[in-house]
Design goal:
Distance between the termini: 90 Å
Shape: flat
Protein name: Outer membrane lipid asymmetry maintenance protein MlaD
Strand content: 25-35%
Order of helices and strands: HEEEEEEEH
InterPro entries: ABC_MlaD, Mce/MlaD, MlaD_Phospholipid_Transporter
Keywords: Membrane, Transmembrane, Transmembrane helix
GO molecular function: phospholipid binding; phospholipid transporter activity
Number of domains: 2
Pfam families: MlaD (PF02470)
Length: about 160
């Protein structure tokens, strides 16, 4: 038969493992797991509208995770949002790469999609992506659709 202290020790170990598992899951769900300590380089891109894009959002190319959004700031000179991204050094993109803000599924999370260009020179630390496409705002699309329908002449 197990002594009381040994039983308490095993219960404590079990609780600690459970707590560690919960912390691990919370980190995964919150996108706090980085790029597994890999070397990265930073680039930035200006957008007219970032929609619901958040810091730590994925940066993908062809559906593959290549980086994460590092920070988002508002440029008071151009009145645009500037998104800084951390890209894994294993992935080099041409200097004429374009960036778009996309949505996973109909109401899913927003992420940045990079589409490689054809330039010979690659993007380097601190470079700026100049070709950008802002987020599609569902409210604007619905409003535009309703406005277009209201402007149509009535069918007789």
């Amino acid at each position: 038969m197990m002594s009381r202290t040994a039983l308490d020790l095993w219960v404590g170990i079990f609780v600690a493992i459970g707590f560690a598992a919960l912390v691990f899951l919370a980190m995964k769900v919150g996108n706090f797991s980085g790029l597994d300590g890999r070397e990265t380089y930073r680039i930035e891109a200006p957008f007219d509208n970032i929609g619901g894009l958040k810091v730590r959002a994925p940066v993908k190319s062809a559906g593959v995770l290549v980086g994460r959004v590092q920070s988002i700031r508002f440029d008071t000179e151009t009145y645009r949002a500037v998104v800084q991204m951390e890209i894994d050094k294993r992935f080099e993109f041409p200097a004429d790469t374009s960036a778009s803000i996309l949505t996973s599924g109909l109401l899913g999370e927003q992420y940045i999609g990079l589409e490689a260009g054809a330039d010979i020179e690659p993007l380097r630390e601190g470079d700026r992506v100049l070709i950008t496409q802002s987020a599609v705002v569902l409210e604007k699309l619905i409003g535009q659709f309703l406005f277009d329908k209201a402007a149509e002449p009535a069918a007789q």
